[in-house]
Amino acid sequence: xxxxxxxxxxxxxxxxxxxxxxxxxxxxxxxxxxxxxxxxxxxxxxxxxxxxxxxxxxxxxxxxxxxxxxxxxxxxxxxxxxxxxxxxxxxxxxxxxxxxxxxxxxxxxxxxxxxxxxxxxxxxxxxxxxxxxxxxxxxxxxxxxxxxxxxxxxxxxxxxxxxxxxxxxxxxxxxxxxxxxxxxxxxxxxxxxxxxxxxxxxxxxxxxxxxxxxxxxxxxxxxxxxxxxxxxxxxxxxxxxxxxxxxxxxxxxxxxxxxxxxxxxxxxxxxxxxxxxxx
Length: 279
Prior knowledge:
By secondary structure, the protein is of the alpha+beta class. The chain is built from ten helices and four strands; from the N terminus they run ααααββββαααααα. It has a four-stranded antiparallel β-sheet with strand order 1-2-3-4. α1 runs parallel beside α3.
């Protein structure tokens, strides 16, 4: 996860980033300057090997479709040189917790990552279960495996209950979240009724009603996910503290910046020099 976020930091850098230029110039002038020796070359797939690839992003159709969608989950905020993003990270067990991730540049090629848990764990985990079992339910429903349909529906209902219980525990719920909750409750009551009828009678008419109501139900789920787990307003909370921490760490690492550059670019390790110690 940390390597992925670091690659994201390099991906966000301009194509003509100074890091790439400095790397290329060092390679060209290697014979004229000091040389640094390493016991082994950087492994394939390491951040150094992939840096140039990520520094030159290419546009693809999935990204274009994502940014054109009215509901966006991957908005990236960049202010004061710090790149911030709301992500969903897996916790202990099957729980998915929303976090704000701040990528703070300390020096050329050196970044500090700060992560803060936000939101309601019960809501985010419940939404994950609902999306998962809706997908499974669609598959088993097409196969007409009624035992599996009933079992998956029970799990789906459990996930929905978890979402509603989590929303009740939010002290100050926003009007837009409350409105989305009401719409979701109404559509779920209809879907639940039709699914129970379908499980009991296997009537194709009930199945058609269920299929017709699934799309708007999914849209409300996405809206609730956006409002409760991917709210970019949470990025600004504690921003001053993030800036203060980044500034302090940058100042205290200033004496080691040259060493860190060598280690990052040349795969330099202290283990290669047993007599070298740091006090």
